[in-house]
Amino acid sequence: MSCCASDKSSDLTATMDVQSEGEVLDSVKEYYGKVLKTDKDLKTNACTGGMRMPKHIRDALSKVHDEVVTKYYGCGLVIPDSLEGCSVLDLGSGSGRDCYTVAQLVGAKGSVTGIDMTDEQLDVANKYKEYHRELFGYSENNVHFVKGYIEKLGEAGLKDNTFDVIISNCVVNLSPDKRAVLSEAFRVLKPGGELYFSDVYASKPVPKEVQENKVLWGECISGALYWDDLMKIAKEVGFTKPRLVTASHISIDNEKLQSIVGDIKFVSATYRLFKIPADVNYEATQGIYDGTITACEKGFVFDAQNEFKTGDVVKIDSDLATILRSTRFADDFSFQPTTDTDQSKAGCCLPTKENNADPFKFMEISDSCTTGGKCQLGGSCGSGGSKSCGSGGSKSCASGGNKSCGSDKSCGTGACGKKEDSCCKSKSSGCC
Ligand SMILES: C[S@@+](CC[C@H](N)C(=O)[O-])C[C@H]1O[C@@H](n2cnc3c(N)ncnc32)[C@H](O)[C@@H]1O
Prior knowledge:
Elements: H1 21-35, H2 55-61, H3 66-70, E1 87-91, H4 97-106, E2 111-116, H5 119-127, H6 129-136, E3 143-147, E4 163-169, H7 178-188, E5 189-202, H8 208-211, H9 214-218, E6 225-226, H10 227-237, E7 243-249, H11 255-261, E8 266-274, E9 285-289, E10 299-303, E11 306-309, E12 313-316, H12 318-326, E13 333-336, H13 359-370, E14 388-389, E15 395-396, H14 421-425
This protein binds S-adenosylmethionine.
Family: Belongs to the methyltransferase superfamily. Arsenite methyltransferase family.
EC number: 2.1.1.137
Domain Methyltransferase: 84-238
């Protein structure tokens, strides 16, 4: 146990009634309001997902106040491209790290709203509003925090069709009613809007007796959805099929907690879901990315299976064509009819024929890259047996085979954000 955690967190066997939404919410509030003081108090690495960050995001993050950053408990990078001018909502915004980072990317004309239910987290977030406004040079604050439940955004005053983008970092798993969260997110998104979020997923449904463990739930483990249930819920509430961006392993480095969990595996995964009117459907096409998204001038990584190099002609299936043509990305692509001789560029490593959203399969492929072999499950991995796996921009496997970086802990020069020190320190040994 961490030296800083309160006594309350030491009872690793404390249980709660997961059928009682109130009890779950109170337990989570206590965990994030009273038990955890900083990220060092966490017992698993579920809420500290490291992530290779593009430079413009690292630069923005470096301006966020230290106190906000030390209370960051996210599990992924929830900052999609092309945010200028957007209105963004952060579900479970915590101390506000992602909100203050995104505030710089949306610019003075954009806005960020963070919603959280825990007073202690909101207090830290609100404390630095003026500090960040001044630092960013904005005449008016473009970040606001509201207190409320992500299952009931209406009660917090959030109206239909309001936001261009919703982000969320390691929060949905903590909710006792995930369906309500996704349904509310769908409601408040504008048509063409996107939910881009990182969360923890299980390799199979988590049994009730494991869910009942308060610490495991608070640590973002036992409330995790079986990944395939996300596909079902997303469809039921009206979203497009989730597109997997990236995934990484989660380890429970505590024997007692591991024994409760048994053989269930957990990953942190980032998905993008779009709200597209049901009657909108485009045919398969050829698309050319025009290089117009800020910080993606050379290419744009859409998800684990689709990476567009600027100017390349790429075959796009009907699902992806519908997304690209109906969202904020529409102006960044030129489209032309498909031909028999089109130069389709196969994505690396993941099969391209279907939208494969299984994060465990992704990890299998990713691991096969890191062990130095060829990426096994479809796709080619670069010419001459070199193993560059472009998915999510985060899995650069060094040539030579055995000095590969793990799924999201690339130690490339300057690639490490504040949370990746341990990864950077081991850089000298070849990689993470
Ligand atoms: C793991 S932390 C992540 C915080 C933040 N996204 C970050 O990356 O630092 C979970 C946060 O979600 C909030 N939260 C959990 N369940 C919630 C709910 N049902 N409604 C509103 N906030 C919730 C907690 O209060 C906590 O601040």
